[in-house]
Design brief:
alpha/beta, about 200 residues, 7 helices, TIM Barrel, seven-stranded parallel beta sheet
C-alpha cells in the first residue's frame, strides 16, 4: 500500500483563491490515485506555538467512487528551544489532526524532537544543507520511540542544487538510521511535481 503523507494545503479565506487552491488540491489527489497511491495526508504547516483553541482547518475531499484514505496532518516548524510547543497527547489542538509532525530548525530542537516530543514524524528540510550533523545516538532515540523521519522529493524536481542536497542528506539519514523508520513523501505544490511510487523507490 502506497501513501503520500505530505500534500501541502493552505486555508485561504478569499473565495476566488480558496476555490483555485481547492481545484489544485483535487488535481494532485486525482493524479495520486492514478499513480497508484491508496492514502494521502493533507499537510497544514504552522510556525511556532500552536494557537490556543486551534482546530484543524483541513477539509477532506469528496471523492465518490474513489477508494482513497484521507488524513489530516499538522507540521509544526519549531524555532525556539525555550518555548513550550504543547506537543503531547493531552493537547486538544493536537488531537484534531490524524498525524502530527515537527520540523526542528536547530540541533537542540532536533534532539528534543527525537527524545521528548510526542510526534509521529520528524521532517527536515533535506533540500538545503542541514545546520547540524545527524548523529546515530540522537536519531536512535526517535527510532526506538517509533517516530519516523521524512524525506520529501518534490524540491529535487524543481532545482538541481536541492537535488544534490537531498541525495547527500538522504545518504546521511539512511546511514544513521540504518535504513529504519524512513518515509518518502512528495510535499508537492503542483500535480506536475508528483511521481509514481516505483519512480520514488528507484530514486
Amino acid at each position: 500500500m502506497f501513501y503520500d503523507l505530505n500534500l501541502p494545503v493552505s486555508t485561504s479565506t478569499g473565495s476566488a483563491q480558496a476555490a483555485q487552491e481547492q481545484l489544485e488540491t483535487r488535481k494532485r489527489v486525482e493524479l495520486l490515485v492514478h499513480l497508484g497511491y491508496q492514502a494521502v495526508a493533507y499537510n497544514y504547516e504552522l510556525t511556532g506555538k500552536i494557537p490556543a483553541n486551534h482546530v484543524s482547518p483541513v477539509s477532506k475531499l469528496n471523492l465518490p467512487g474513489v477508494n482513497l484514505k484521507q488524513f489530516s496532518r499538522l507540521t509544526l516548524v519549531v524555532d525556539d528551544v525555550s518555548q513550550n510547543y504543547g506537543l503531547n497527547a493531552n493537547n486538544p489542538s493536537v488531537l484534531s489532526y490524524d498525524i502530527l509532525a515537527v520540523q526542528p530548525t536547530n540541533e537542540k530542537l532536533f534532539q528534543a524532537a527525537c527524545g521528548t516530543f510526542e510526534v509521529d514524524i520528524i521532517s527536515l528540510d533535506m533540500a538545503a544543507r542541514l545546520p547540524f550533523y545527524l548523529k546515530h545516538s540522537t536519531v536512535g532515540l526517535a527510532v526506538e520511540r517509533g517516530i519516523y523521519f521524512e524525506l520529501c522529493y518534490s524540491a529535487a524536481i524543481r532545482d538541481a542544487t536541492a537535488r544534490r542536497n537531498l541525495i547527500s542528506n538522504a545518504q546521511s539519514l539512511i546511514r544513521v538510521t540504518r535504513g529504519k523508520n524512513i518515509i518518502l513523501s512528495s510535499q508537492a505544490m503542483k500535480a506536475m511535481e508528483l511521481r509514481g511510487p516505483y519512480d520514488i523507490v528507484n530514486l
